[in-house]
Amino acid sequence: MRGRLALLVAAVGVLVMVAFLVPLAVLVRTVAADRATARATADVQRLVAVVGTATPETVRLTVDQLATDTGREVTVFLADGTVLGARAARTPAVVLAARGQSLTVESAAGREVVVAVQGRPEGTGVIRTVVPPAELGAGVTRAWLVLALLGALLVVVGLVVADRLAGALVRPISALSAVSHRLANAELDARVEPAGPAELREVAGALNHLAGRIQVLLREEREQVADLSHRLRTPLTALRLEAESLRDPDDAARLTAAVDGLERAVTGVIRQARWRSAAAAEGRCDAAAVVGERVTFWSVLAEDTGRTVTLDLAPGPLPVRLGGDELAAAVDALLGNVFAHTPDGTPFTVRLAAEADEVALTVADAGPGLPPGPVRRGVSRGGSTGLGLDIAERAAGAGGGRLELSTGADGGARVVLRLAATPPAPQ
């Protein structure tokens, strides 16, 4: 676009220069020729009084002196046939001037100036001089060169100005394109600085507003998903515990299978909605506040099932590179696994500590421990969905950390969620 604008301006500039300079060049040549003719006419007029009254010898001396001064050939034709000055034939212009008419005509030798002189006894005399082409075009070449240089300079200046103007247009458009691509790649914090003409600034403002609106909508969606997660996990866990406590094994197995199916469906929907825009989920939160709030939430169910909760939280704030909703979902997944895969009365420990440049969340229980072999998504004991650890692992990846699985000192499962720590937000 920038090159096309420059080419357009160059073409228009050249056309304008041609339309302006060609007539001006013709005018310069005409003015130079007229000026030379006027000088020659003025020189000839100096002889009129002498030719009209003086003797032929005096006229001859005066003509020779004028020719020497001007560098032009000067000839005087008397009515009796006498020719004084430079030898020249009687041209049609001289014949016409002998009838009493002064005139200027173009000839092969240049511009011929003839002046009729009245008052001599023998009749009308004629003074003739010729302005050569060199004198007619004196200074024209230099003037044309100056005009050509001026035209080229104006075209170059026009190109420079056009390039600056094109740059002022192209740069905001390029910025808009770059920000739109970043938004398409889920970098919803990308914004464009309004610049350029009013129309482009309006487009930039609209794009920024759109990006902000997308962020608001995604944040509301994540909040709704998080609220759904919080609302459904506890009833599902309680329903599973109730099903497992039934005395009839067949009824217990049937209800447990139904609860497992419901939990798989709910967890799948929640996971799909939560991680559909993982890049948009990036953020930061206080891990101490989020973990403390979720442990308090699960402590009610722990008390109902006779579980002892040991809570060891480092004093906050502990900012991490993960949104609060995502961290809460990971904590819910880990604590939900404790309740789902350990018997009632099994104690568990939740520990949150700052270690170097990361924050470590440890959830350990005194249950039967992890199954042998690698734990994969969709593969777990007891017919569960296997999505709990997957949600926690994805949260760890989004937070710049990792998920570690091991066996605790008392034989139970030990899960460590490590997240990258961030500097505290400025006050």
What features would you describe in this structure?
The protein is α+β, with helices and mostly antiparallel strands and 427 residues long. The protein folds into 2 domains: 2-140, 2-Layer Sandwich (Beta-Lactamase); 213-420, Histidine kinase-like ATPase, C-terminal domain (Heat Shock Protein 90). The protein is 57% helix and 15% strand. The chain has 10 helices and 12 strands. The strands form 3 sheets. It has a 5-stranded antiparallel beta sheet with strand order 2-1-5-4-3. Strands 7-9-10-12-11 form a 5-stranded mixed beta sheet, with helices on one face. Strands 6-8 form a two-stranded antiparallel ribbon. The protein is rod-shaped, with a radius of gyration of 52 Å.
The unreliable regions are 277-281, 376-385
- Structural class category: alpha+beta
The helicity comes to 55-70%
Q: Regarding CATH, which class of the largest domain?
A: Alpha Beta
Largest sheet: 5 strands, antiparallel
Radius of gyration: 52 Å
Distance between the termini: 45 Å
Number of helical segments?
10
Name the shape in a single word.
Answer: rod-shaped
CATH topology of the largest domain: the name is: Heat Shock Protein 90
User: How do the SSEs run, as a string of H and E?
Assistant: HHEEHEEEHHHHEHEEHEEHEE
Please provide the count of β strands.
Answer: 12
Query: Based on the structure given, which CATH architecture of the largest domain is correct?
Result: 2-Layer Sandwich
Strand order of the largest sheet: 2-1-5-4-3
Number of folding domains?
A: 2
Give the mean pLDDT.
83
Proportion of beta-strand residues: 15-25%
Name the CATH superfamily classification of the largest domain. Histidine kinase-like ATPase, C-terminal domain
Protein name: histidine kinase
EC number: 2.7.13.3
InterPro entries: 2C_sensor_his_kinase (IPR050980), HAMP_dom (IPR003660), HATPase_C_sf (IPR036890), HATPase_dom (IPR003594), His_kinase_dom (IPR005467), HisK_dim/P_dom (IPR003661), HisK_dim/P_sf (IPR036097)
Catalytic activity: ATP + protein L-histidine = ADP + protein N-phospho-L-histidine
